[in-house]
Design brief:
Layout lengths: L13 H23 L9 H18 L9 E7 L2 E8 L12 E3 L14 E2 L7 E12 L2 E10 L4 E2 L2 H10 L16 H7 L7 E5 L5 H12 L14 E4 L3 H8 L1 H4 L6 E3 L1 H9 L5 E3 L1 H8 L3 H14 L4 H16 L5 E5 L7 E5 L1 H14 L4 H17 L7 H20 L4 H9 L2 H5 L6 H7 L14 E3 L3 H11 L4 E3 L2 E3 L3 E4 L7 H10 L5 E5 L14 H5 L6 E5 L1 E2 L4 H11 L9 E2 L8 E5 L7 H13 L5 E5 L2 H11 L7 E2 L11 E5 H4 L4 E6 L12 H11 L2 E10 L8
Helix pairs in contact: 1-2, 4-5, 8-18, 11-18, 12-13, 13-14, 13-18, 15-18, 18-19, 21-25
Length: 720
């Protein structure tokens, strides 16, 4: 009998699995009670007893949330002639007095649950063979369903893995990101467990699960099995394209057992590193692309933004700073008396030529914490060597040199701030030409201002296209990385979501800020809404991340067959890559609402679509508009049609579920049970412009189960 026809309780091993679950829950509770009993956590003295008690309470707190669902799967394995069953869960548990041990999903053994391999050779011990893989649906300490995924006694693959996946995909969306630990597919598992220490770019279409895979990879990186490549959660960072998505995505990390990871946006991270948290960051290029109908001006703005994010700009900045600092050395020197025990005062002297030599050495060393800190260390080291300072007096000499050194370094470096220096460079054709890397045409392009018609804030501001250039100045002068107290160190691991929207220059800077090989980039070139900031191809990213490998996810899991096919039709107009395969999940036909133009426009159609979606059982519903101003206006007007949609028009708004209305640039990365694309016509999404077709693709790929297209007049030709 096919697996899908079995009622959950009719599986022949249901009662045995139910009994094992009961025993595992009891064993976990006994262990937690033992840890929480302070009288049992006794050491040789009071201090040791307190430490042991605190550690035990921490262990109990980590295990307690998993008692309601100790595991979600099992493996029957044969090793060295003996068979045993291993249970796989989100948190490892060792039952020292019984058979109820659970292995963690992110362990070496846990990986076997997801793979298609039937044999493995562990790092220690004998080779083994997989006899059976089994999914166990557990909720609130209750066994709900047993599904065999593979059983060699039943002919091998049962089709159960696809059945479990489809069951999960039928569930409605929530206000948080999906936890896919229980249903990782083999290709997702392979990407998630790509060898540690190798930078990886995961290319996947909308709904392929790349973002959640990136989060699970980060959790996998924190496992002790990673050895020298193990990442500390507090030393990791996840960059999301906007604050709406950052807040939405951050909720899953604690569920994966990792706390204190920095989840932020590139702009927030950059302004924090620059010490300019109050600086208002604008994206005037995006404003122009969304509102201006002049294709010449749009093309000019696009090309200038692309050039500002070109990786060559790193060496343009370096050459500019080399010239600036060498010019600042003119007439500089240092002469300082230094007191040493048992000797007459020694005089440490540096002339301009010696300083220039040290600066050359520092530039060659390219220290993580920047040229200023590197120059201080170089001068201190030279002083200690020249004066033959004993080791026990080195600290004293550094203190004596601290003030004159600060004064000297101030004269060389103090006039250089990231904002002023980046803008000084852009305003000087001669400085832009100094490196020899830019053509005359490119230098001329950087001198144009295609955004002059887009208003700027009254207070201090910077544009997103300028930020990487400012970060480059910061990286060379003050350093780039993770601040641990006063120490700057590389991040242990960085995950980039919507990676197609990060400039090659930003990749080069993140490569400096992170341990070699510890960047995971997640993106889809087909969804490049911010292509003016992003790379033209993944090869451009690989050039900045030595050894980076591109993995392509071949399936999309988010949407029904009907929605996936519609998205594929749009993407085919600009995507030259192979077609993405969707999960064979049937659903409602795509709804199309059209009417002649009337006094209320499309508002009655949208209100009707909302009610139809709600009648179909959906609660998390998005109305997707072309621009933020459209969403703001429409949210207010829809109330007259008994439709109350929460507007999300800025990054300060949070997505909490329910009925929302938001522009396509903020909808990107989110998913909803139902989505309604407003103004889905050629007047709104220009058919002749690739950028507009990309926007339409993003709008139409947000829905899991139910999609509606709304327009007064004819629908867009690609979706009609």
């Amino acid at each position: 009998m096919p697996v899908a026809e079995l009622r959950p309780e009719t599986h022949p091993d249901f009662e045995l699995e139910k009994e094992h679950l009961s025993g595992t829950v009891a064993a976990m509770i006994r262990q937690i009670e033992f840890w929480e009993d302070r009288d049992r956590q006794m050491g040789a003295d009071l201090e040791t007893s307190i430490i042991l008690g605190d550690q035990a309470e921490e262990f109990a707190a980590m295990l307690s949330p998993h008692v309601h669902q100790p595991y979600f799967g099992s493996l029957k394995v044969r090793v060295a002639g003996r068979e045993q069953t291993l249970y796989v869960g989100k948190h490892g548990f060792r039952d020292v007095k019984g058979p109820h041990t659970v292995v963690s999903w992110d362990s070496e053994v846990g990986s076997l649950f997801y793979s298609q391999a039937l044999g493995w050779t562990p790092r220690r011990g004998s080779a083994g063979v997989i006899r059976r893989r089994r999914q166990l649906d557990v909720s609130q300490k209750t066994l709900l369903r047993v599904t065999d995924l593979y059983d060699d006694e039943q002919g091998g693959d049962t089709g159960g893995r696809e059945e479990v996946l489809l069951r999960r995909l039928q569930e409605g969306s929530t206000a948080g990101m999906r936890d896919v630990v229980e249903t990782l597919q083999p290709e997702q598992n392979d990407a998630m467990r790509h060898p540690a220490g190798v930078p990886v770019i995961i290319q996947g279409a909308a709904g392929s699960g790349k973002t959640t895979i990136g989060f699970h990879r980060l959790a996998w990186m924190t496992n002790a099995d990673r050895g020298a490549h193990r990442a500390r959660p507090e030393a990791c960072m996840v960059l999301m394209p906007n604050r709406v998505l950052a807040t939405y995505a951050a909720r899953i990390l604690p569920e994966l057992g990792i706390e204190r990871v920095i989840v932020t946006t590139p702009e927030a991270w950059a302004t924090g590193l620059l010490g300019l948290e109050k600086l208002e960051v604008t994206d005037r290029t995006l404003s122009l692309l969304l509102t201006d109908r002049d294709n010449t001006r749009r093309a000019l703005a696009w090309r200038k933004a692309k050039l500002l994010g070109d990786a060559r700009m790193l060496d343009v900045v370096r050459t500019h700073l080399w010239n600036r600092f060498n010019a600042a050395l003119a007439g500089q020197g240092l002469r300082e008396a230094v007191a040493l025990r048992g000797r007459e005062d020694q005089v440490f002297t540096l002339d301009e030529a010696a300083l220039a030599g040290l600066l050359r050495d520092v530039f060659a060393a390219d220290p993580l914490d920047g040229y200023r800190a590197g120059m201080r260390r170089a001068i201190e080291a030279l002083a200690l060597s020249t004066l033959r300072v004993p080791e026990d007096e080195e600290a004293s000499v550094r203190r004596q040199l601290a003030t004159p050194l600060t004064t000297l370094l101030g004269r060389i470096f103090a006039t250089t701030t990231p904002i002023t220096e980046a803008r000084r460079l852009l305003g000087s054709p001669a400085e832009l030409a100094a490196s020899g890397l830019l053509t005359e045409r490119e230098i001329s392009l950087l001198g144009t201002d295609p955004l002059s018609g887009i208003p700027t804030p009254r207070r201090a501001h910077a544009d997103v296209t300028e930020i990487p250039l400012m970060l480059a100045v910061q990286a060379f002068t003050g350093g780039i990385g993770r601040l641990d107290g006063r120490t700057l160190e590389p991040f242990d691991h960085v995950v980039l979501d919507e990676a197609q929207d990060y400039s090659p220059l930003l990749y080069a800077l993140l490569g400096r800020a992170t341990r070699p090989g510890h960047i995971t980039a997640l993106g889809d070139m087909n969804q490049g809404m911010h292509g003016y900031k992003g790379p033209s191809s993944w090869e451009a990213v690989q050039a900045q991340l030595p050894g980076a490998q591109v993995l392509t996810l071949g399936r999309t899991y988010r949407s029904t067959r009907q929605i996936t096919e519609l998205g594929a039709r749009i993407a085919a107009t600009y995507n030259r890559a192979a077609a993405v395969q969707g999960v064979d999940r049937d659903g409602a036909e795509v709804k199309r609402y059209t009417a002649p133009a009337g006094p209320d426009g499309e508002l009655p159609l949208i209100a009707r679509a909302v009610k139809d979606a709600q009648a179909a059982g959906h609660t998390n519903i998005a109305i997707v508009t072309r621009r933020g101003v459209d969403a703001e206006r429409m949210a207010e007007s829809l109330r007259e049609f008994d439709t109350d949609a929460q507007p999300i028009t800025t990054q300060e708004h949070r997505f909490r579920g329910g009925l929302v209305i938001l522009p396509v640039n903020l909808a990107k990365g989110l998913e909803f049970s139902a989505a309604i694309v407003a103004s889905a016509n050629a007047d709104t999404y220009d058919e002749s412009t690739e950028y507009e077709r990309r926007l339409l693709y993003v709008s139409a790929s947000r829905a899991l189960h139910w999609l509606a297209l709304v327009s007064t007049g004819e629908l867009h030709p690609l979706i009609a």
